[in-house]
Known about the structure:
The structure holds two protein chains of two kinds. Chain A is an all-alpha fold. Helix content of chain A is 70%, strand content 0%. The model of chain A has no long low-confidence stretch (mean pLDDT 94). By secondary structure, chain B is mainly α. Chain B has a single domain, classed as Orthogonal Bundle (Globin-like). Chain B is globular and about 45 Å long. The mean pLDDT of chain B is 96. At the A-B interface, α2, α6 and α7 of A face α2, α3, α7 and α8 of B. Chain A: GO terms for molecular function: haptoglobin binding; heme binding; iron ion binding; organic acid binding; oxygen binding; oxygen carrier activity; peroxidase activity.
Amino acid sequence: MLTAEDKKLVQQVWEKVSGHQEEVGAETLERMFAAYPPTKTYFPHFDLHHGSDQIRGHGKKVVAALGNAVKNMDNLSQALSELSNLHAYNLRVDPLRFPSQLLSHCLQVVLAVHLGKDYTPEIHSAVDKFMSAVASVLAEKYR
Amino acid sequence: MVHWSAEEKQLISSVWGKVNVEECGAEALARLLIVYPWTQRFFDNFGNLSSPTAIIGNPKVRAHGKKVLTSFGEAIKNLENLKATYSKLSELHCDKLHVDPENFRLLGDILIIVLAAHFGKDFTPSCQATWQKLVGVVAHALAHKYH
């Protein structure tokens, strides 16, 4: 469960990301595709080369959606409702691994790369919990 | 048998060469206990684990973290022969320590984040991909003797 302190820490980290949304998003996706090649199966229609416009565009979209989630941490279900539908009925990415483990992990690697020791254990913990909550909501309508 | 390309071996050894095993090990184990608090179940006799500050400062956590990462170093020296290298450790974790192998995966991912924080941009996507493969293979070897 996200405590008040967790929410504060997530907001803090997110402030550091704003202004670099496209970069953070693109790098997260790039790392995910490199480390977990099966995730590419969801993007057969994309140019997956480093720096591709599609990766940048999609990364920016993902980070923007997460930013919206950060603004609405008290009501994730409602804030992410449409995205929940999209993931459950259209995209149908494997809910058990994709958003909760792979994307979350790669986003955290990007944050760690950029923040260094400012990515403290407390912040790491809060972000991990937040991403877990987001993934949970996105998976709500799968079955 | 896992195959390691020359590039992968290079990416592994160049990172490992710069790792302070004591610091990284301590940090990785501390983060495991902080981010996934249920893992504290294996460390009842470690004393004060009541807060992130307590965990980070706990000398038993530091010592054990160093031990774990030192053992990881053995894996790196024996990439062609991991299952044999970890055979006894695998039996120990199953028969005596009763550790669910899922925890090896968790620790592996935490180690990756610790490396990312230390090396910043030098921990490139290719570097991460190679190290994800490494931690996966180590976790697999450690789970191999479970029954």
